[in-house]
């Protein structure tokens, strides 16, 4: 999995990346600030602050 931050860097800024990816720039910025990851299918994963005691 890769970070959305890497996509932003690839396109130069949030607006260009959001336009290419088909999401609102504010949503993309929010996901990046949360440390979101994506997979090869385009599914986005947001790490939770909640930790399980295993």
Walk me through this protein's architecture.
The protein has 54 residues and is mostly helical. The chain has a single domain (2-42), classed as 434 Repressor (Amino-terminal Domain) (Orthogonal Bundle). Helices cover 46% and strands 11% of the residues. It contains 3 helices and 3 strands. It has helices at 4-11, 14-21, 25-33, and strands at 2-3, 37-38, 44-45. It has a 3-stranded antiparallel beta sheet. The longest helix is centred in the middle third of the chain and has 9 residues, at 25-33. The model has no long low-confidence stretch (mean pLDDT 93).
Q: What's the short story on this structure?
A:
It is built from three helices and three strands, in the order E-H-H-H-E-E. It is mainly alpha-helical and 54 residues long.
List the helices and strands and how they pair.
Layout: E1 2-3, H1 4-11, H2 14-21, H3 25-33, E2 37-38, E3 44-45
Antiparallel strand pairs: 1-2, 2-3
Helix pairs in contact: 1-2, 2-3
* Biggest sheet descriptor: 3 strands, antiparallel
CATH topology (fold) name:
434 Repressor (Amino-terminal Domain)
| Structural classification | mainly alpha
Strand order of the largest sheet: 1-2-3
User: Proportion of β residues?
Assistant: 5-15%
Task: Name some characteristics of this structure.
54 residues, mainly alpha, 434 Repressor (Amino-terminal Domain), 3 strands, elongated
């Amino acid at each position: 999995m890769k970070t959305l931050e890497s996509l932003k860097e690839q396109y130069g800024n949030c607006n260009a990346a959001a336009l290419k990816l088909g999401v609102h720039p504010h949503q993309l910025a929010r996901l990046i600030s949360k440390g979101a990851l994506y997979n090869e299918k385009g599914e986005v994963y947001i790490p939770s602050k909640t930790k399980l005691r295993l």
